[in-house]
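Session log. Operator J.P. requested a structure for one protein chain; no other inputs attached. Running the standard single-chain path with token output.
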Amino acid sequence: MNLGVVFALLGAAVAVLFSGCGSAIGVGIAGQAASGVVTEDPGKFAKVLIMQLLPGTQGIYGLLVGFIVLSKFGLLGGGAPEIAFSTGLCALAACLPVGIVGLVSGKFQGKTSAAAIGIIAKKPEQFGKAMLFPAMVETYAILSLLISILAVNAL
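Structure written below.
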């Protein structure tokens, strides 16, 4: 068994699973708030849907890093390439930022989006301002994506 491959695959899995879970939690939280608003005023559907979708980006970032890792090490072709143990371990470490930050930021972006949906419920004309709050959380997901991509490409 090639432990380098195992750790590279584990890294890709961590990136996808953790960030995907963060997005699922965040979209769920925001969706609960959005559902209540749409029940009262169906005309606000488009605005609250945008807010609900914002926490979904973390999962996309994790998926992107997962694909980059699989592609970089030739794991998409079905073969079992030789990957040094240390390189596989480094791949796992490179995937941790997007995975962990995606998990945490997805959840908190969902909570912030839910609060922003509350703003839209009462003052729909403040949509632009309301969007800034969850967008601030997104900044940290983007930073973690950047560091994970740079780290994987450095291997």
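Operator note: The chain has a mean pLDDT of 94.
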